[in-house]
Amino acid sequence: MQKNFLKILLVILVILIILFFKACVTYRTKGNYTINSHEKYNIEKFTKIPNLKSVDILYSGKINFILYDNTCNLVLRKIEIYYKNKLLGRTNININICKLENLNESETSKFYSLQNFLLEVFGKENEKIELDHTNTGEYYFYIYIKDTNKNKEYKIEKIGSIFFEKKGFDIFVPNI
Question: Which of 86, 97, 155, 168 has the most CB atoms at less than 10 Å from its CB?
Answer without folding.
Answer: 97
